Amino acid sequence: MTTHPLLAPGGIVLPSYRRPPEGVHPPLDTPAYRSTVLRVPKRPLVLLEQGLTEVTGPLLGEEQPVPEDADLTTRHAGEPVGERIIVTGRVQDCNGRAVPDTLVEIWQANAAGRYAHGIDHHPAPLDPNFDGAGRCMTDAEGRYRFVTIKPGAYPWGNHPNAWRPAHIHFSLFGRAFTQRLITQMYFPGDPLFGYDPIFNSVPDPSARERMISRLDLSLTEPDWALGFAWDIVLRGREATVFEQEEERW
Amino acid sequence: MTLPLTPSQTIGPFLAIGLPWPDGPYVVPEGTAGAITIGGTVRDGAGEPVTDAMIETWQADPDGRFAHPDDPRGGGTGGFRGFGRCPTDAAGRYRFITLRPGRLPSRHAGWEAPHLDVSVFARGLLDRLVTRIYFSDEQEANAADPALTAIADPARRATLIATAGDAPGEFRFDIRLQGEGEHGAGETVFFDI
Question: Staple partner for A197: which of A32, A77, A180, A227, CB 3.0–4.6 Å?
Answer without folding.
Answer: A32
